[in-house]
């Protein structure tokens, strides 16, 4: 599918509003978009954007981002990203791709399989999904609409970097994004590291 066919209509910035957030010392700018494959993807922009800003492309994780689940490192990665990007200036692209793109209900089904000893990627396959069906073409379009074509990417996932490059964004440098390692997520993070290859975690 071409990038043009991926979009329902011509993509554009829909709205921008200052947003004071408790996890940052000052306000950020929340940007919404029209014409993407999901109407509720959004960006949080911190400070002035340089010619090559620090960017985190973060897939939604209600359990980790909102409730602080220890089964994953998503919430702690988001916290670390906000801290680093606020200091450096840059953006967080928040993509509504819950559960690695399979949705919340299916993610909980996958959790049930994982409790029986099935790996995270195998659980997706048993439910009839690809290992990781996420798509980053919307993220590339969001960056272009923000006037960004070259980035430093805050990620532990080499596939994300490759997908953005394929969509026309230059990834000048990949910066590891640390998350919290716990007894509850150790096996999950080990499996992600073996598959994705850039993982760095802390024990804080």
Automatic annotation (TrEMBL):
Enzyme class: hydrolase
Alphabetic keyword roster: GTP-binding, Hydrolase, Metal-binding, Nucleotide-binding, Riboflavin biosynthesis, Zinc
InterPro entries hit by this protein: GTP_cyclohydro_II, RibA, RibA-like_sf
Documented EC number(s): 3.5.4.25
One CC-aspect GO term: cytosol
Pfam families in the cross-refs: GTP_cyclohydro2
Identification of the protein by name: GTP cyclohydrolase II
Annotated organism of origin: Achromobacter pestifer
